[in-house]
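Q: Here's a chain of 147 amino acids. Please give me its 3D structure as tokens.
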Amino acid sequence: MRNHHYALGATLLLALAFPWTLAAAADLNAPIDMQAVQLQPQEQNGIRYVQGGIGQDEANALRKTTGYDLHVELSTGPEGKFQSGATVDIQNAQGTSLLSVQDAGPLLYVQLPPGRYRVIGQAGGTTVQQQVTVSGKAPATVNLNWR
């Protein structure tokens, strides 16, 4: 009987994690309901960016957006559940803040010139960061994950 409870518990955990796993591995060829999409390009300090990804349609629409050299994905936990509401700061190699976005995520796409950057995310009192090089040839991706 005890093994049955463990199997049931494992099944429930998988069922709860499955929708978030699907969101991370979305089918980019699926039709998008554009009425559910609220993407608005913005600019700060001469740097253009777009953020969003709340809901499958918006996440798919943002993933299809071109012209942004840096893709920042915010997630939490080992299963990679989308994280929104974080503060994201992007600094140049000298440590100067170029872009600071409040209430960001779970996807943030930024137009940056080629160079080395530090991407710092803060959520729930925890800070994570990652170094990235933007080449200007293909978008660089940063995955900030709060575990």
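Q: Can you summarize the key feature?
A: The CA atoms of residues 3 and 9 lie 10 Å apart.
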